[in-house]
Amino acid sequence: MSLQKFTPLIQTTVADSIQVKQSFFDTHLDAVETCARKIADTLTAGGKLLLFGNGGSAADCQHIAAEFINRFAMERPPLPAIALTCDTSVLTSIGNDYSFDDIFLKQIQALGRPGDLAIAISTSGNSPNVIRAAEEARKMGLFVVGFSGTAGQLQELSDIPFCVHSPVTARIQETHILLAHILCDLTERILFA
């Protein structure tokens, strides 16, 4: 059995990831700064962040919430952020009694308040449970930030849409988490530097 060399594949993947991120940030610099300032204003005014998404995006929600609650790069007070992807009893009871499409919607109704900020993540931009929750968040007076891929409904429902133009889900997710880290970093600097 011969050993296959994966070096060219690794190099191509890294180059593609860098290119997608570079292209995204080249076209979204102003929106990133605007979003960080909106997050800081939301938190200063006593609002909180509510994050929701499926699969890898659910994990990203938990990761981002942890960065705000604990700390990102500096020692500072905790900031209020809730990943709506964590409570399995809530998720499974809503999914069982109503519909999987309602798992984030009902949590937005229960926990969201005007002045809060929702971060909705869907690489397709069309996940029904994310779309329903984003629609409800807007109706309730929450500010909606959407992380998505190239297309989908989420960009139309978002006050600030962050659309990553790539056909590859992994490249979209990699860009989303870099975006989230930058937003955390900027928010800390705005509030505490």
Order of helices and strands: HEHEHHEHEHEH
Quaternary structure: single chain
Averaged pLDDT, please? 96
User: Strand-residue fraction?
Assistant: 5-15%
The largest beta-sheet arranges its strands as 2-1-3-4-5
CATH architecture: 3-Layer(aba) Sandwich
- Looking at CATH, which topology would you report? Rossmann fold
Name of the top-level CATH class: Alpha Beta
Compute the separation of the termini in Å: 57 Å
Gross geometry: globular
Helix content range? 55-70%
> CATH H level: which superfamily?
Glucose-6-phosphate isomerase like protein, domain 1
Structural class: alpha/beta
Cofactor: Zn(2+)
GO molecular function, one term: zinc ion binding
Pathway: Carbohydrate biosynthesis; D-glycero-D-manno-heptose 7-phosphate biosynthesis; D-glycero-alpha-D-manno-heptose 7-phosphate and D-glycero-beta-D-manno-heptose 7-phosphate from sedoheptulose 7-phosphate: step 1/1
Subcellular location: Cytoplasm
Describe what you observe in this structure.
The protein is an alpha/beta fold and 193 residues long. The protein has a single domain, classed as Rossmann fold. It is built from seven helices and five strands. A five-stranded parallel sheet has the order 2-1-3-4-5, with helices on both faces. α5 (128-140) links the parallel β3 (117-122) and β4 (143-148). α1 (7-44) packs parallel to α7, α2 packs parallel to α7 and α4 packs parallel to α5 (128-140). The longest helix is centred in the first third of the chain and has 38 residues, at 7-44. The protein is globular.
